[in-house]
Amino acid sequence: MALLRSLHVFLSLLLLFFNHALAVGFTFNIVSLGAKSDGKIDVSSVLQTAWAKACDSSKPTTIYVPKGIFYVRSVSFNGPCKNNAITLLIDGTLVASSNIQVLARTKFWLEFNHINGLSIVGGVIDGQGTALWDCKRSGKSCPNGARSLQINDTKNVNIWGLSSINSQMFNIVVDGCQNVHMTGVSVSSAGDSPNTDGIHVQQSSNVTILNSNIGTGDDCISIGPGTSNLWMENITCGPGHGISIGSLGKRTEEDGVHNVTVISSTFTGTQNGNGVRIKSWGRPSNGFATKVHFQRIIMDNVKNPIIIDENYCPHHKNCPGQASGVKVSDVTYEDIKGTSATEIAINFDCSPINHCTRLSLKDIKLTYENQIAQASCKNADGIASGVVEPSSCLA
Ligand SMILES: *[C@@H]1O[C@H](CO)[C@@H](O)[C@H](O)[C@H]1NC(C)=O
Ligand SMILES: *[C@@H]1O[C@H](CO)[C@@H](O)[C@H](O)[C@H]1NC(C)=O
Ligand SMILES: *[C@@H]1O[C@H](CO)[C@@H](O)[C@H](O)[C@H]1NC(C)=O
Ligand SMILES: *[C@@H]1O[C@H](CO)[C@@H](O)[C@H](O)[C@H]1NC(C)=O
């Protein structure tokens, strides 16, 4: 399997590379531009130079990072550009500094802004976050840390076969983007690493995430306000806190989330695991989540396999006693099977002032310690069909 996959990725990379190198446009090899692959000398300015050339070209252009380890302090790749097909083709590894002070005042390690037509193919980006996680876990005062890959205000993006490991904070963020396709992405951060969401999507539409394998210390995929037409298929999540829509409703005025699908995916539990979650702050907001579809999902010892939590209020600050204004509606759960690590496998805890409506459960079988698990409903309306175990508590 793994061998086949790497062979496939390798051949496809080769094809892509030759397509670009021979058929169209230019290729800038960062080593030819002076980058050293010793993992110590900062290649940020070489990448920046390559980007300036690529962005200024009127033809499709590839920036090629060959095999080897390249140290990158931090880079912003900014558009708009004169062509709409720039590829960053990575055969080697980009590594961040392991010194937590280096990115202390930087929110993003690798950042792309205002581009139309961007591909990031192959390779490894290594955020070297372990020292920062240790600092955070020790309770000392530490820098926030940087997100490894931030893509802002960008259209027509392909991310293909990229591995993000040990990000200090969120691994990959898509913010304010349209038409983004991610395939064969892999994320790996320790199961107890703080705030290392695998992929975060917000204010974006038409995003697909396929065939990706995510293991991390926070949400495998988190979905923020203003997301629509998001399709996730064949995702393996674990360790991690599951796929989560939210937290929504942090702000009073907020864009909603609609048309989100998770299909044919597997969740493997850890102590903090979750399956599919919709989560909102317990405070006033005009936010919403609607037309959400979870189908063909396997849960393997997952804490909270199916959960809607509309009472999120960390540290009981700025919301205790308040009800969530976020409206959750039209959510379907179909063909979800496996084992729960908590007795309550289905937990709908919806807002007392804004009930969840049109929830639907179909063909569910979740067990807890070899017995049928339990379902809990608060303010949750909807229907069940097929065989649903634990039996539905929807009103
Ligand atoms: C990218 O988006 C982030 C989050 O919205 C923002 O903080 C940052 O300033 C943006 N960068 C640019 C160059 O627009
Ligand atoms: C998103 O996809 C929908 C449906 O395929 C399409 O109608 C719409 O134009 C797309 N939006 C953008 C911004 O490309
Ligand atoms: C699912 O994704 C994995 C990679 O995580 C891939 O190896 C496998 O071929 C994909 N399955 C399908 C049916 O596409
Ligand atoms: C919902 O999103 C999917 C892609 O994720 C798209 O194909 C479909 O057209 C969208 N539906 C609507 C009603 O926009």
UniProtKB/TrEMBL annotation:
It comes from the Eukaryota. It holds the Pfam family Glyco_hydro_28. It is found in: Secreted, Cell wall. InterPro entries: Glyco_hydro_28, PbH1, Pectin_lyas_fold, Pectin_lyase_fold/virulence. Residues 1-23 form the signal peptide. The keyword Transferase does not apply. GO terms for biological process: carbohydrate metabolic process; cell wall organization. SMART domains: PbH1. GO terms for molecular function: polygalacturonase activity. The active site is at residue 241. Keywords: Cell wall, Cell wall biogenesis/degradation, Glycosidase, Hydrolase, Secreted, Signal. This is Polygalacturonase-like.
